[in-house]
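RETRY 2/3 - previous attempt timed out on the joint model. Re-submitting the same 918-residue input unchanged.
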Amino acid sequence: MYSEVFGATFFGLSAFLVRVETDVGSGLPCFEMSGFLTNEVKESKERVKVAVKNSGYELRPQRIVINYSPADLRKRGTGLDLPTAMGVLAANGITQNRDFGNTVFIGELGFDGSVRGVRGCLACLMEAKKKGFKTAVVPLDNLSECHYVKDLNIYPVTDLKEAVEIFSGETLPAPPVYEKKVFEDNIDELPDFIDIKGQDDVKRATLTAAAGMHNILYIGSPGSGKSMFAKRIPSILPPLSYEEQMELTKIYSAAGKLRDVQGLLSKRPFRSPGQNITEPALLGGGNSPDPGEITLASKGVLFLDELTQYKMHVIEALRQPLEDKKITVARNMYTITYPADFMLVGAINPCKCGFYPDRGRCRCSDIDIERYFGRISGPMLDRFDIRIYTAPVTFADMFSNKADENVIKDTADETEEIFSFTSDKMREKVCMAHEIQLKRFKGSGRRFNSEMTESEVKEYCHLKDNEINFLEAVFKRFRLTARGCNKILKTARTVADLAGSSDIKKSHIAVAVGFRNDEHISKASGG
Amino acid sequence: MQKTKNPESKMQTICDDKDRIYDYMLAMVPGVGDVTISALMDAFGSAKEVFKANEKQLSDVNGISKKKCSEIIRTKNAEEEIRQKISRWNRDGIKAVFIHEQAYPKQLRNLADAPFAFFYKGSLPIGAAPTVAIVGSRACTEYGKNVAFSFGKRLALEGVQIISGMAAGADVYGHKGALSAGGYTAGVLGCGVDICYPRTNFNVYMEMQKTGGIMSEVIPGTAPAPGLFPRRNRLIAALSDAVIITEARLKSGSLITADQALEQGKDVFAVPGRIGDPLSMGCIELIRQGAYPLTCVDDILSSEAVKRKIKPCNSEAYKGQDSSDHSTDDENVYAKKVLKTLTDIPKNINRIMYEASLGYEVTAQSLLELELHGMLRSVSAGLYVRAEVAV
Ligand SMILES: [Zn+2]
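RETRY 2/3 succeeded.
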């Protein structure tokens, strides 16, 4: 007898439907599978046979031939176990209702007949919906990521028997209804900038970085709080939109990293891979085409602590995806493009011993410092629009809340509004700046000041005469390159946006120059 | 570019004097040092005669081993090659002066181990002009940099030539100070004069060739090596009438320079630093041993060695910064407030805005404008100090 069942598998972030055609007949007992399968799929033979038996279905010795189509696409993953088993059972007439044309089955089988969660479930279901399927049978493990797919009847199952029973009657039972969790913006669970005392300049630089999605490099001694700043960046980025959450969940689903998440991913990622990370692990690819850290950091932060400790070719490989906001991984078997839309946050000691500029402790010569920075290439350092030094926290900073208040009070009466750096307040500012940029770049494909092209810099960073003269003086004094000048203008645009100013003023340029530390860095990197 | 009034200009190139090629050759014999050269010159009278001598005559000279002998002969055979090398040097502006020549700095002749050849780019210091060396720790504090810069500048304005080693830290700031005043400043290197070491000082290296000089006793092309630097220090001391030590740790290279200066009978001035700061301990130790504490530029100018060479001149040169800018009055007020907060102790912008009672953006703007006008320096690590110490 013959049956036709649908499964789905995925490749990169895109999924496709697989037609599983099973024929059982008399002949020498065997189990044959064809249709461009990876080993994972070929191995399902044993799992399916044992799972079917242990679920209590007795099959007579028979010749089973299964074909998976379309034949030209490589099928991977263990998610085809369930449709294969259903196909075999249907071909044996074990299920009553054999009209599976509208249903897609996804799940891995255990020997005991249990149905286990798989990677890429969300992408598969979204594809099924697009192709007009009405029903899906999925592992209960994957439910949280799946029931956000609208207009699809979803039947979660824990074992093969349950799946078979759904199809035992004339008609399908009504699908269980799940209360869909409202996706929350749980900023409260994130570490808050309020925990960091003092260092207002670093907070301001961080705020500016988040507001224009500029890459930021923290330079400072051990204990000066570099990673504290980095870890707090997700708390000031705007909440993820529903689409962004779906996108992100799809990525994590494909990478098999959704274990602890209930529902969609609502938090912006903060990825900090260790210093011995390999290029495939960072960029994606390898033997199986999994997304790398830069893709997992999409919509969030990729934090590289102690930048000089990474293998330099690995760091250099970040340059292209930083420009493109995506990464194409090509191996002889495949070519996949993943999103890589992240904010790069780096941290680095100021010198080899870590104590510069404290000359009481640091004996590094200028050459030592140059050599230390020189481990990172000039073009790579250039990718950081903002390079800010983090001064070690002083005793007064740690124990005096009063000092902070004083700063705010004293500065306020002269020139600027009071601003206290809590994650809440900072996030408000960032959201406001993002909105301004959204309007500015509408229809251009760009979203943030940091992404501006050269011609867009000319258009949106228009300066008045006074400011042009000022910038020219800076240009000459610091021997800037045209590229460095553009970077300063981009950051100055963000500083002006944060200040709610449509014009870029001298002070905005000055702040951007201060955030760039061009002279010191280019000197240090020998460029 | 070279000022014609310098007496050595006549003898600068081998084209002027055919026999100078032998001086060059003698200086370049591998393994033959200044002591041996001195013995050879005593025996034969001139470099030309040295190369005319046969093996027997050479080995009769005291201290000439067989090996040295064959090196001299090998050098003789390489004459054409050396000629080409020298014309390349001449083309690159590298000159040499030899100990028996009139242009050879008199101050160096007093050294027991005076170099036979002295290579340089730019010009040599003038012996009749007051000359002060500024040396100090390479890994110095911002205070040390400011002190070196300020003394370099103020002394240069008084017509004092500034000598140092072009090393990172105090050395280069002394040079920079002199350059900023348009004065003569010379860097005595431990490597060939054609090599900019450290590379970070390239701008200063180029500038000094225009208005001052780069000099060395080692043959051009010689790479920097640890052993060369202490020997170089004796030349710095010899070329100077007085030596300023800005900052030094105990047992540091700067103290060796101080010792050599004292041996040569030069005045040594040490900047009294803060107690407890390791970078001050060397200077404090020097003062304890009898060095002059240096507190202002007059300490130097009124010292006997310097005073007798000073011509009453440039004193009007110390003038304030002209401000040909387009700042509004408000901006000037803010800049003044910011400037008032600056000292030699590096401060970051948080501290400065707090002390000046100004907002962040205004403070950032003021700092940048002050920096553009040379009134402050932003030292690495986002910290600011005033550009000069009042000395
Ligand atoms: Zn250090």
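Chain B touches chain A at residues 138-142, 144, 168-169, 198-200, 277-279, 326, 331, 334, 346, 348-350, 353-354, 357-362, 364-365, 367-369, 371-372, 378-383 (CB under 8 Å). Closing ticket.
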